[in-house]
Amino acid sequence: MSVNIAANLKLINDKIRDAEKRAGRPEGSVKLMAVSKFHPSEDVLSAIEAGQFLFGENRVQEAFEKFPPIIEAHPDTELHMIGVLQSNKVKNAVKVGSCIESVDRLSLLDEIEKQCAKIDKKIKVLFEFHTGEESKSGFESQEELEEALTAIKDGKYPHVIPSGFMTMAPFTEDKNRVRKSFVMLRELAQRMKEKYPDFEMNELSMGMSGDFEIAIEEGSTLVRVGTAIFGERDYSK
Asked: 216: domain CATH number?
């Protein structure tokens, strides 16, 4: 069954605009990230043709093989690395990505700094915070997060640009629990921005296919949508 990626993108973007309007937010205050893992380059190129330039991948090897030629042909294309990032995958992740969305531990910053220093590249990072019982990754406490931000402020990680926060809401039909997760991240982000005013940590990456409208109501600036754009993934590849 063929998927009309352009039509799907229009549908999602219309829903984002509607959610912005309902939340009393300015149009364009929320960006859409197309999550393209397990989808071929052709699908990414179809999305680019339809005006989509921000993508997310969580499998480093796949992204490293797929995206360099795409970015070379379409320099406006931006790739964020999402999902749990193992230290041994950081080397390729920082080469192909413009942002690491899932910094969930201090030791990961050590590796990101080390690999970015080798290629003299500064990279944006979002700090993943654990707000839902089911998601296992993310900083567990504000203290841990402050330790990371203080280390950056003190110059320990000169190639790392703290740009905001991300979370995964619990996978549940209970919208109140989902909303609570997003409120928790927004309030944490506010406290961190007040405490570290030198950093422009304005990105709030929260909300996926099933819950992005609630996320927008609660202040998300970046929603991550895959299946609703590209169709079901082919895991056999």
From this structure: 3.20.20.10
Say if 223 falls within a structural domain: yes
Tell me the pLDDT tens digit for each residue of 188-236.
Answer: 999 999 999 999 999 999 999 999 999 999 999 999 999 999 998 776 6
Give the Cα separation of 220 and 129 in Å (integer): 14
Q: What is the pLDDT of residues 112-145, one digit of tens each?
A: 999 999 999 999 999 999 998 665 689 999 999 9
Q: What is the DSSP string of 19-65?
A: HHHHTTPPTT-SEEEEE-TTS-HHHHHHHHHTT--EEEES-HHHHHH
CB 183 within 8 A of CB 214: no
Residue 179: the pLDDT is: 96
Distance (Å, rounded) from C-alpha 48 to C-alpha 183?
32
Q: Which of 46-55, 69-78, 171-180 has the lowest mean pLDDT?
A: 171-180
Inside any domain, residue 129 = yes
Mean model confidence pLDDT for the chain: 95
The two structure tokens encoding residue 78: 């931006």
Number of independent structural domains in the chain: 1
Amino acid at position 216, single letter: I
Q: 224: which strand partners?
A: 33, 208
Distance CA 101, CA 83 (A): 7
Question: In the numeric block, which tokens belong to residue 13?
Answer: 């973007």
